[in-house]
Design brief:
This protein has 15 helices and nine strands. It is of the alpha/beta class. The strands form two sheets. It has a six-stranded mixed beta sheet with strand order 1-2-3-4-6-9, with helices on both faces. Strands 5-7-8 form a three-stranded mixed beta sheet. The structure holds ligand LGGBLMCM. Ligand LGGBLMCM binds next to helix 7.
């Protein structure tokens, strides 16, 4: 079996010929224990991904191949418990190290990560041009999102001030498209900000009122898939990503801040994740990033009890990089960002990559799990009652 013909790797010796790894014929009947509802990749998805790897047009490089190998082994055999190859058996030792580094990651999560990785590789090998100029950018479908590029900065602005920049389903899609375009354009830095007095009031709760033909279950399934795609874009975003938090932030607009590189906030901002009040659970990888950023008990106060933080508190907890007086916020922040955008863009990209790569697999696994749990939550009475309360004007945060 040759995955990348003519592509010798790891010192000129093909790993696959030494071990016949990734061969679909080798996939045993797994009898997997499926966790929760079907958000994690199925065995069929995994088998398809294993086949898809062979169709990749470009060699993804040794590092990625090793990752694929490790995830494949973890997904099919579980944690590495075979003896470590000897010092001089370089290739098998490298493979063993990669597999062993996955620790106790479950077979299901490994399978999901494998499928995600292959899907990202397939998408990037199909993308037509690495540098789409800003002028070619597909404009958002509605004016609720405004994307501009100037002075080396691409700015994605939430523009629904009358609704406190609450995120409609269309806006999630438009943000995904805007981030994908920004990742390939010529700008050095990408910024997310809001228009008006709010940064963002989180998910537009009326999204839950547009029930598709398949009812609540179908609505929850497609919302979970959208959430997962949306958060994946933040995990994978390759350039410095800065949040310019121009006012209060609620829900998902707060949780994804843990995936930004820098967060600047006006002193008028506040940070509120009222998931329990809404019968929901954390997303945006916050179940992982928040405890890491602020410690487990401060994170629990926010994520379980919905404690609202002031900008100063959020800065003290490490969620916000710096707080500015509201009167000078825009002037000071944009002057600083313009200066940063003149730094060598490749150096910034590479530095971000090296930081993010340590966490990427973990973040994707967390995102998959959070989306899966939320899919269930959205079908719960607790959640439905909270949304009905808001919509009937009985409840406000
Ligand atoms: C598919 C992916 C799903 C990802 C999962 C995400 C989860 C979350 O983000 S959970 C957080 C959801 N957000 C909320 O629960 C906030 C709800 N909004 C409020 O509590 C309040 O509106 C407020 C505290 C944000 C602002 O209060 P106030 O200053 O008094 O302003 P108004 O309430 O009068 O708001 C003006 C206008 O905007 C509408 N609106 C505000 N936020 C939302 C929202 N999140 N969803 C839908 N609509 C929202 C509000 O209803 C008002 O509308 P009109 O009455 O028509 O003027």
């Amino acid at each position: 079996m040759t995955l990348w013909p003519g592509g010798p790797w790891l010192g000129g010796t093909s790993l696959e010929t030494t071990n016949h790894w990734l061969s679909p014929l080798q996939v045993p009947a797994l009898g997997l224990h499926v966790l929760g509802p079907a958000m994690l990749a199925s065995q069929k998805d995994f088998n398809n991904a294993v086949s898809q790897v062979k169709l990749l047009k470009e060699d993804p490089g040794n590092e990625v191949k090793l990752k694929l190998y490790a995830l494949y082994k973890q997904a099919t055999e579980g944690p590495c418990n075979v003896p470590k190859p000897g010092m001089l058996d370089f290739i098998n030792k490298t493979k063993w190290d990669a597999w062993n580094a996955l620790g106790s990651l479950s077979k299901e999560a490994a399978r999901q990560n494998y499928v995600d990785l292959v899907s990202r590789l397939s998408a990037s090998s199909e993308s037509p041009s690495p540098e789409a100029p800003a002028a070619d950018r597909k404009q958002p479908e509605s004016d609720s999102l405004v994307v501009t590029s100037e002075d080396g900065i691409t700015t994605i602005r939430l523009n629904r001030p009358a609704k406190k920049n609450a995120l409609t389903t269309q806006m999630y899609h438009d943000i995904i498209a805007a981030l994908q375009a920004a990742s390939k354009d010529e700008s050095a830095i990408t910024v997310l900000t809001g228009s008006g007095d709010y940064y963002c009031s989180g998910n537009d709760l009326t999204n839950f009122t547009h029930l598709p033909a398949g009812g609540l279950e179908e609505m929850a399934r497609s919302a979970a898939a959208l959430l997962r795609d949306f958060v994946n874009c933040f995990i994978d975003f390759p350039k410095p990503l800065v949040a310019v938090v121009n006012g209060p932030a609620v829900g998902i607009s707060v949780t994804i801040l843990g995936l930004f590189d820098v967060v600047y906030a006006t002193d008028r901002a506040s940070f509120h994740t009222p998931f329990s009040h809404l019968g929901q659970s954390p997303e945006g990888c916050s179940s992982y990033t928040f405890p890491k950023i602020m410690g487990s008990s401060k994170a629990a106060e926010m994520l379980l009890f919905g404690k609202k933080l002031t900008a100063q508190e959020a800065c003290a907890q490490g969620l916000v990089t710096e707080v500015f007086p509201d009167g000078t916020f825009q002037k000071e922040v944009w002057a600083r960002l313009k200066a940063y955008s003149k730094l060598p863009p490749n150096a910034m990209r590479i530095s971000k990559q090296i930081i993010r790569n340590r966490e990427k697999e973990k973040l994707h696994a967390v995102n998959a799990e959070e989306s899966s749990v939320l899919r269930e939550r959205w079908q719960s009475d607790e959640c439905m009652n909270a949304i009905a309360s808001f919509l009937s004007r009985k409840a406000k945060l």
